[in-house]
Amino acid sequence: MTAVDCDVLVIGGGIVGLSTAYAITRAAPGTRVTVLEKEAGPARHQTGRNSGVIHSGIYYRPGSLKARFAVRGAAEMVKFCAEYGIAHEVTGKLIVATERSELPRLHALVQRGRENGIPVRELGPAQMAEYEPWVRGLAAIHVGTTGVCDFGAVAAQLARLARDAGASVRYGAGVTRIGRRPTAVAVRTADGTVLRARALVNCAGLQCDRVARLAGDDPGMRIVPFRGEYFELAPSRTSLVGGLVYPVPDPAFPFLGVHLTRGIDGGVHIGPNAVPALAREGYAWRTVRPRELAGTLAYPGAWRIARRHWRYGAGELRRSLSKRAFTDAVRRLLPDVTPDDLIPAPAGVRAQAVLPDGTLVDDFLISQSPRVVHVLNAPSPAATASLPIGREVARRVLEAL
Ligand SMILES: Cc1cc2nc3c(=O)[nH]c(=O)nc-3n(C[C@H](O)[C@H](O)[C@H](O)COP(=O)(O)OP(=O)(O)OC[C@H]3O[C@@H](n4cnc5c(N)ncnc54)[C@H](O)[C@@H]3O)c2cc1C
After folding, report:
1. Ligand 1, closest atom to CA 204?
2. Partners of 262 in beta bridges
3. Does the N-terminal peptide bond of residue 346 adopt cis geometry, omega within 30 degrees of 0?
4. How much distance in Å is there from the Cα of 48 to the middle of ligand 1?
5. DSSP states of 77-102 as a string?
6. What is the pLDDT of residues 249-306, one digit of tens each?
7. Are 40 and 179 in contact, with CB atoms under 8 Å apart?
8. N or C: which end of the chain has fewer CB within 10 A?
9. Distance 378 CA to ligand 1 centre (A)
10. Longest dimension (CA), the chain
């Protein structure tokens, strides 16, 4: 038998990796866990660059992992934040139809919410105004269980709890190689350190397909990075938005559309759009990684998305390149906003799994091979759902030990 340094190695110190480490220490105390994160601290990518919304679970197909884990995860996230003094608020949210063609989809959401056990209220324009006097629409639904929190602070707390329970969390430890033996898995980090474990968990977010390949597995998908750009409402204009306001999403996409979010700091964020990122960690148009871009362009799935969704994509590109076009889109929900009210804010990049036939993977995707568990699709609402996801991944890796 190969000598090992620990039982489970977790690659990725985002909210999913840290929740997994925490869950392992809770489910099987004494299990030796090490988290390896390439950045200098937790939550430097998706977990620290998102809308900060605790999603209710209304959107997701009943029975899907997203629906089950989001509904349960939202309640657990609120409790977790309350227990550890992390800033959060259950604000409720409106989903607003601004065009007649959106009304059937709004009604379908009411139905879906009820199927997922989420209380929703249907509102006409006058009732809408009681919640959001400056927002315009033909009809809306109010979802009471939606909230906001600081997912970066949640990730940091999960790291503390995992460490308190004996786990090791190493920052500045990017995994560059993975070797497999019948009884163990070995990784090498960028500084040449080699660590051996009985099992490995891949929670590498934007890099998860690459890490799967490093481990010798074919993930059957590829991460196509979609940047989400945000603006902030000028401080003098934040009174235009009371809480959270979302459009009716286009069911062809796993993205929810540009929304208005009053965060825990009282500021109002507007976004995110969805444009192709020219690098996996490309937070601005000027960040281009030619090899990564060439990899995306060589992937048949990327071209199939482009062919299928070129009209939607062209609109998103226009709104990314022109502040006026972005403002015009926001004005459908909030007519009083002007380009001068919008201040650019930091962007995020979504790790979206795409199949070779161009399908955007909708549900969370977790796969396994001997001694290895890969989290291959954990886009929104995975931050909301991170506690149940972590438990599920922990269950699978403990079974594999
Ligand atoms: C714009 C945007 C808005 C969103 N809004 C919401 C929202 O409102 N509510 C919600 O619930 N969800 C939201 N999400 C989704 C949510 O942020 C993600 O689902 C969640 O953060 C995923 O966590 P993760 O741990 O899988 O990924 P990440 O946070 O990206 O963590 C992966 C980690 O792996 C590390 N890593 C990668 N490769 C290696 C390697 N080789 N070695 C070591 N470490 C490595 C990375 O540095 C990174 O820290 C949003 C996402 C985006 C981008």
Report:
1. 34
2. 268
3. no
4. 7
5. HHHHHHHHT--EE---EEEEE-SGGG
6. 988 777 888 999 999 999 999 999 999 999 999 999 999 999 999 999 999 999 898 8
7. no
8. N
9. 8
10. 71
